[in-house]
Backbone:
């Protein structure tokens, strides 16, 4: 009996030593669980990641009468434990309507959140910039601009974008178009290092179009996407800088979804998923990929594409998540948002009623040459789907000089030869951790200390961060 006990003790000791060696080999650190309201907290970003700390930034903006409207910043230490949490309420007054626009990490120490606040009583709308600065661990609020309005329903729209190199932030106020009158659009471009104005310009458009979105080039120019109000005309772009404006038109009858910019050799290339308009208007079509040289206003290609071939439900959006340039080739990463009807027993009068639910899933990776021709079209690992989740399905993680995509099971490289998956099983280091699911969009590599961070859902709004050295 004693020999058996001694043998059991040594076996347990050996297992503990092996486990410790494996853990030390990867320096696995599992943080304590923290509360995170995934369904309420929107546009969540992991930011300011270095060898000492990282932060999680999110916004809650509910429309109900008792709705919460606040910005949340959580700080985590090297052991992935929550060490501080700051909240900023942006409900300045119950008389105001507050609308969240966007948030951007504008430099190494600051993240700015843009809020539009409109007053029915004061007949004005303000654009607020709430900035969290990690150097003083506090929020500040600045009104960037104020505009008169006729009513809440006739207030304009705030549109914003950050340049791909992160140097310039554009904030636009597109005034409400009333009875086909000219539209005034006010643009301000900021230097993100100090939020000083680079230039400010007010433009009046006489055409029957509206401003739907904007892009910012790496040199601080603003690209406004003009959307027609009729079925007889098609989108075009207006490029604005401090010297003036220039209209860029596209060949063909194209219905363009949200575009993306990339600057290569001082040439701005624009990429957009679209479909070619025909006699019978289509809806929610994603059949073409436009490559457009914005600098000289020429269409390089509008490729026929197949995307989401295995998606059984309705595709409601295809987003271009990232465009990279390497070895004289473009690599374009896409993500699909699909919608399906799910039974909901919330209506006692109609218990079998169906409610549409949207969720994200991976799209395709496109490899293109310099003239816009598609060289390869590879579906991104379809096992990355997370049904009914609000998070995205993958992140693009720089690691050892390469770009990897993180899915729920592997970190794989499709960069050098996108027909061969180079799998890197970074979950082997985290086996044994109890969790419901991984949120791959938050996978982040920190080169300062050679550490990979992952975020896991443990259920009931409880989450944990883990890290290891691959």
Residues:
């Amino acid at each position: 009996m004693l020999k058996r006990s001694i043998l059991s003790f040594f076996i347990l000791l050996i297992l503990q030593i092996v486990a410790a060696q494996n853990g030390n080999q990867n320096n696995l650190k599992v943080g304590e669980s923290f509360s995170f309201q995934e369904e309420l907290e929107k546009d969540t970003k992991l930011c300011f990641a270095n060898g000492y700390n990282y932060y999680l930034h999110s916004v809650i903006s509910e429309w109900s009468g008792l709705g919460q409207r606040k910005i949340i910043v959580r700080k985590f230490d090297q052991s992935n434990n929550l060490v501080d949490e700051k909240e900023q309420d942006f409900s300045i007054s119950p008389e105001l309507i507050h609308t969240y626009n966007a948030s951007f990490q504008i430099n190494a120490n600051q993240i700015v959140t843009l809020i539009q606040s409109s007053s029915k009583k004061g007949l004005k709308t303000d654009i607020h910039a709430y900035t969290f600065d990690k150097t003083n661990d506090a929020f500040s609020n600045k009104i960037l601009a104020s505009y008169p309005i006729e009513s809440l329903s006739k207030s304009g729209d705030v549109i914003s974008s950050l340049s791909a190199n992160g140097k310039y932030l554009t904030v636009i106020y597109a005034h409400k178009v009333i009875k086909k009158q000219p539209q005034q659009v006010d643009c301000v471009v900021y230097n993100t290092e100090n939020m000083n104005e680079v230039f400010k310009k007010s433009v009046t458009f006489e055409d029957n179009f509206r401003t739907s979105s904007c892009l910012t080039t790496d040199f601080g120019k603003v690209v406004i996407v003009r959307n027609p109000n009729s079925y007889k005309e098609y989108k075009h772009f207006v490029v604005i800088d401090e010297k003036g404006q220039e209209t860029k038109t596209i060949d063909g009858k194209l219905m363009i979804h949200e575009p993306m910019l990339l600057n290569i050799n001082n040439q701005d290339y624009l990429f957009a998923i679209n479909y070619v308009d025909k006699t019978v208007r289509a809806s929610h079509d994603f059949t073409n990929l436009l490559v457009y040289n914005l600098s000289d206003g020429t269409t390089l290609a509008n490729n026929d594409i197949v995307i989401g071939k295995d998606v059984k439900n309705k595709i409601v959006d295809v987003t271009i998540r990232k465009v990279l340039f390497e070895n004289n080739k473009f690599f374009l990463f896409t993500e699909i948002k699909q919608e399906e009807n799910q039974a909901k027993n919330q209506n006692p009068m109609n218990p079998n009623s169906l409610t549409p639910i949207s969720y994200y899933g991976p799209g395709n990776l496109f490899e293109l040459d310099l003239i816009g021709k598609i060289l390869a079209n590879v579906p991104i690992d379809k096992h990355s789907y997370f049904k009914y989740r609000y998070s995205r399905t993958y992140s693009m993680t720089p690691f050892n000089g390469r770009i990897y995509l993180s899915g729920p099971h592997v970190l794989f490289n499709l960069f050098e030869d996108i027909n061969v998956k180079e799998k890197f099983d970074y979950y082997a280091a985290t086996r044994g951790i109890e969790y419901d699911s991984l949120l791959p969009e938050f996978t982040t590599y920190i080169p300062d200390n050679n550490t990979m961070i992952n975020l896991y859902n443990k259920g009931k709004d409880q989450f944990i961060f883990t890290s290891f050295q691959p």
Remarks:
- Confidence is low (pLDDT under 50) at residues 1-24.
- The radius of gyration is 25 Å.
- The helical segments are 2-26.
- The chain has one helix and 35 strands.
